[in-house]
Each structure stands twice: as C-alpha cells, then as structure tokens.
UniProtKB/TrEMBL annotation:
Residues annotated as transmembrane: 40-60, 81-100, 106-127, 185-206, 218-240, 252-268
Protein name (database record): Undecaprenyl-diphosphatase
Gene name of the record: uppP
NCBIfam families: PRK00281.1-2, PRK00281.1-4, undec_PP_bacA
InterPro entries in the cross-refs: UppP
Annotated membrane topology: Multi-pass membrane protein
Amino acid sequence: MSWFDAILLGILEGLTEFLPVSSTGHLILLGSWLGHESEAAKTLEVVIQLGAVLAVVMYYRARLVDLGRGVLARDPGSLKVVLALGIAFVPAAALGLLFHKIIKEVLFGPMPVALALIVGGVVMIGVERLQRKRGQEGLTRLEDVTPRRALIIGLAQSFALWPGASRSMSSILGGQLVGLSTAAAAEFSFLLAIPTLGAATVFDLIKNGRALLEAPGGLLALGVGLVVSFVVALLVISGFLRYLKRFGLSPFGWYRIVLGALVIVFASRG
C-alpha cells in the first residue's frame, strides 16, 4: 500500500466518520477500487478511525475536562452523562466482540455495503419526516439522556456493525427517536465515538496489527492515514453541526440511496 493510497483513505475517513454516510462503507468501497484485498488493508480501514477519535477529543477537550472534573467532584449532571455514554457503548462493543470475524468475512464487500447504504438512507429520511410531523425541537441537554434512552441509542448504534449502516447515523437516529434534538443527538454521538471507535481500533490492532505492521509500507500507511484523518475530521465536525441545524439529515439519506444504487449497478457489471 502506497502513501498516496493512505492519504486517500485518510481524507475519506475524516470526511465521512461523523457524517451519517458510513466511513467504513466508503473505505471498503475505495479499498476495493484500489485493489486492497489483504488482511493488512482491511485492518487499516478500521485502525485509521483512531485519527477521527483524536479529532473528537481535540474538538471537545473543554467539555471532556469539565466532565472529568464533574465526575471527580461527584456532580450529578456529569455522572449522568458519563453513565449514559457507558451504557450506550456496551451493546455495540458486546456484539462486535462476538461477531467480529463473521462481520469481516461476510460484510466487508461492495454489495453488502451498498444494501446498507440504501436501507440506512430510507430509514434516515423516514425518521426525519417523523420528527417534522412531531413539530418538537426535542431535549437539548445531554444530562437528559437517561439510562433507558442511552440503552436505546446504544442498541441503535449496534446496526453500524453492518458496514455501510453508519455509526453516526445509527446513534443520531437513536437519539432523535428517544426525544433528543438533532444537535444534541449529534453531540452525544460524537462523544460516544470516543469509547466505541477507540475500542474497535484497539481490538483490531491486537487481532491483526501484526499483519498491518509487517506489510510492505504498512507502518508508513498507518502514520500518514492517521494524521490525514485527524486533520480532516477536525475540520468536518464543526461544519457538520452547523449544517444539521439548518438542513437536517434528509440530504444525506438521498445521497446514500443514490450511492448504494450506483454501487449495485457497477458491482453487477463486474
């Protein structure tokens, strides 16, 4: 894998990790187009998410420091947020641990990704229309995420184990369905990315990191990909939050449907 390939993967990861379009799905499609079929390449497509995790930590550093201080001081609001994040993290972590091998063997391909893109796009548009009919802004404070709401968000996030479904889409939609405003659901989703993507990265490194590091150009590709994905993701986060407040999720839903249909057409033609 060349450093140029790593730059392309890093840009794509940074652009798509926090948009509800599935970064893993896009990385699989790009990797397939570039001819990456090895275990090392598939591992890089997961581990490169660490750059986006670090971008979230950087963007929310003040919020995270306040949460840490609040937990140490036993502040009820901070404790509720941390507990909610912990509960929401568990379902995807448990299912990912159980089905990690099957997911990589069966779902890491263009056709499964295309189907997930289309299904996710339809669901996204449907939930957005449901929100408009309700005519309510929703809860705006993360402190309002109760354990029950957190569990529902966590179960929704589990659908992102299907590459192409999108972790951010699943968790944002889960937040909307339990009554959060779109902005609050997105913020909770971003913070939830820290333990979720962090755990996925560490787990894949333990399982397959040796293959990546021993592959020709593997270490260079990893370093370049992480730096690029960090920078791009950091630029995307704030812009996406502003966009959500103005336009909502529906445009991303239509994008997913069109992209999924195109992938199916090209895949069927070989």
